[in-house]
Amino acid sequence: MVDLDNLREYTNIYDDLVQAELIQAIRENQPINKVIDVIIDVDWNRRKIQYGMYRRGLLEPTTQDVVDNSTVDPRTHDGVPILRRTNAHELKVNHRNHTPFFNSIVGNKTGYFLGKPVSYSSEDKNNLDLLKDYIKLKDVDAVLMDAASSAVAEGEGFILLSSPEGKNDVILNTQKSFHCVVLYENQLPVYGLMYYPDLSDTSQYNAFWYDEVFVTEYAGSQGDMVVTKDPVIHLFEGVPLVEFANNTNRLSDTELTVGLQDVYDILDSDLSSEITQLRLAYLMLKGFGTFSDDENKNEALLKMFKQTGLLLADAESGVDAKFIEKNLNYQSIEYAKNDLQRRIYKHSNSYDPDMLSGIGSSVTAFQIRMMFNALEQSTIKTEVEFKRSLKYMLSLISKYNASYNKEFSFNLEDLSVNFTRNIPSNIIMDVKEAREAGYMLSQNQLNNLLPLEVDQAINREELEEEGDLMPATIVDDNMNDTTEDEAE
Length: 488
Prior knowledge:
By secondary structure, the chain is of the alpha+beta class. The protein is built from 15 helices and 13 strands.
């Protein structure tokens, strides 16, 4: 029999051994509430990181006092550290500048990966049209985009399928990654858990346990949960909690560089605070006054110095007045910031959006693709996970509709799912390169490529009337490249 308590030493709920042991314990009829308790324990470290990533995306300040990042995993901060920084003294300037690299990285990848709708193909046109109508009706592309944003930011996204009582319909809702876990066997979901603290008492949990037939509700403190509602048939032939992972390790692209992002915020904030706090020049007066033992008087003097730019100092003999200048090496500072920015985007498998504004009008599609190489490699891994999960989700919906919503009963036997990259391109240069390579493009294809709204029939008539284009030079979509007479 599996000793569940031994599993508490693990920190990765998706470790193959942990998953196998949990499934075996369930099949040995060990109490589900204890299985849930172990899952929450094992999932604790990862959940902290995912919650921190989620809070960063909302631009929420961390609730933790951040003094020394050298002893703390920056991924576990439940928000943006610089926004938490307090002022050491009322006379000190404390700028808290935050550059949202986090959201930029998430937007870059989700836009690149799902900026264009997922496409589907099948030899059965009627079946394909039915599927497309259903996907449009349920706004599946928007739900997938939400799941992808969570996956890129937190490592996983989840979609829960549910069927309202008394209605033959499927509802798709995204769920927060740090509330969900799925157990797999041979890459197929066999159990799912969705749990979250009770808002009125965070020591208490509410949990929903899914198997391939039932959903059961639990509640109580960790280690002491009880069934609060008898198992209910959820109507899906499989686990309706569907995971969309960013990669096999469930690592987010953003967590790879949050430490660098925090360093950038500190550098930028300290620099602007320094410039605001200090003048470029102070007037030093020696022998004109002195500090007092009275702290209140000294504080008044400090305020005066800040307002007037004067510094007072004792002098053993005579008086003196001179300016003290402060020179900042802006070039070194800018180099450090630019280097950090470059490293943040590079090691997040992303790109700096500013680079696209300066690439020039003659850049080719190949050059643009090379700029996106790291992002493409990361996206390939995400596509593998999303394609498998999307097909599984559609299979659940298909089986449900076959029983309860026959109007949209589609099959997935020969269905192909395709993700098309949303790559910025220079269409004019692409067309020019294609023609130089010997490709013949019809007016219809050109019209589809170029961002122009043109009535092709009217345009053709006008061109013929003006004599700018002979009819014979136009390649019609319905024409063959050669006629029988030309072939002879």
